[in-house]
Amino acid sequence: MITLYLKQAWALLKQNPLFSSLYILGTGLAIAMTMIMAVVYYVKLAPVYPEVNRANTLYLTSARFQTGEEGHKNSYQWAVSYKALQDWFYPQKNAVAVSAALLNDMTENSYIQPADLSGDFRVGLKQTDPNFFRIYSFYFLEGQAFTESDLESGIHTAVITEDLARRLFGTVENVTGRSFTMNYVSYRVCGVVRSGSYLTPKSYAQVYVPYSVSPDYRKPQYGIDYLGAFNVTFLVKDSEQAEALWNDIQEIVRKENLMHPNDWTVNFWQQPISHTLSVFQSYAAEELDVWATVRYFLLILLILLLVPALNLSGMIASRMENRLSEMGVRKSFGAGRNKLLSQVMWENLLLTLLGGILGLLLAWLALYVCREWVFTVFDRWPDSVPEGVDVRVSGEMLFAPTVFAAALLLCVILNLLSALIPAWSSLRKPIIYSLNEKR
């Protein structure tokens, strides 16, 4: 019976090409827009290479220190110093791994001087420690990460991506042990990793070096021993350990503020925060209104899906009026209302599935072609892509079956409802009325 309905639906589709085309296009656009939105946040939130541990990763990226007496306080907001790493964070027991990254002028403005003298070019740099490669699951094509002894000695060694290896050496094979010049200093390659994507900003770089290569990495800022330029990332086993870690750090804040209230006090706000919260929170001191965020995205989703569904409902109502005489004839030969309604629903399901395929293709095309801006379209403070950086969109980002299935299911439900209401209304009319319709 279902096969027969689908054959009849296909025949009607060919008989009414304009209606069918508009229906498929409308459904396709709705699914495409929904898919784009879903994939953008899938890339931000889901475990994608190399940030496969996002569910168990916590971040501490900002700190506020205040000095002076009450009423005459000076505030300094930055991050934490090397001393804070050693005294507060590296010794943490409620973490599988603790990693720090140094943010300074070298991070923001590093240039490579290629051996062929083709001209300096800017490179994405992370100054970090060996635990960085425990938290982020990079795939090493050859070699390995730098070691703790490399970090302690300040040796100029580096992990580079395969893309940079090809640009510097023309290959990714036998690159370990070779050298390149960055900021007019020679670095030895200790490992080559599969390139990540600029869309995974917590881990993205082209060169990874020990933070000890920076001459001033131990230097605190503004005369406060614990104020500096290090961000801290934690890997935990589960939510229980995450809560225990958060309590430990809040206890550090409480104790430190009690010990020297007249010298300085520190505030980490609600940090360390989860990866999910970091996506929606613009700055550490912001109090995120979860329900306001949910309402915002529900409103966008309703606009993307409900408006096309209402338009399609009007089209279907008009079409059902044109088919009243056909329905009247079929009723007179004994076809029941449920059977006729079932046929109409199968017809619209076929059109919806065809629209879903079109929408999927349009979404993939838009996400790939417009990848340099579409992934920041929902950000409050979008960053521009640095010159020369290719925004890599991997297969696991685009081909997310659960995302497509969820978007298609929503569209199917709305489209079938948009078909059900006008179809049910038309089929309730008496046979005589339907037979006398001359449309």
Automatic annotation (TrEMBL):
Coiled coil region boundaries: none
Domain MacB-like periplasmic core, chain residue ranges per copy: 21-251
Highest taxon in the source lineage: Bacteria
Gene Ontology cellular-component annotations: plasma membrane
Limits of the ABC3 transporter permease C-terminal domain: 299-430
Keyword NAD: no
Pfam families registered for this protein in UniProt: FtsX, MacB_PCD
Transmembrane domains' residue ranges: 21-43, 296-317, 349-369, 398-421
Gene Ontology MF term list: transmembrane transporter activity
InterPro entries to which the protein is assigned, alphabetical: ABC3_permease_C, MacB_PCD, Macrolide_Exporter_MacB
Identification of the protein by name: ABC transporter permease
Organism (species): Bacteroides intestinalis
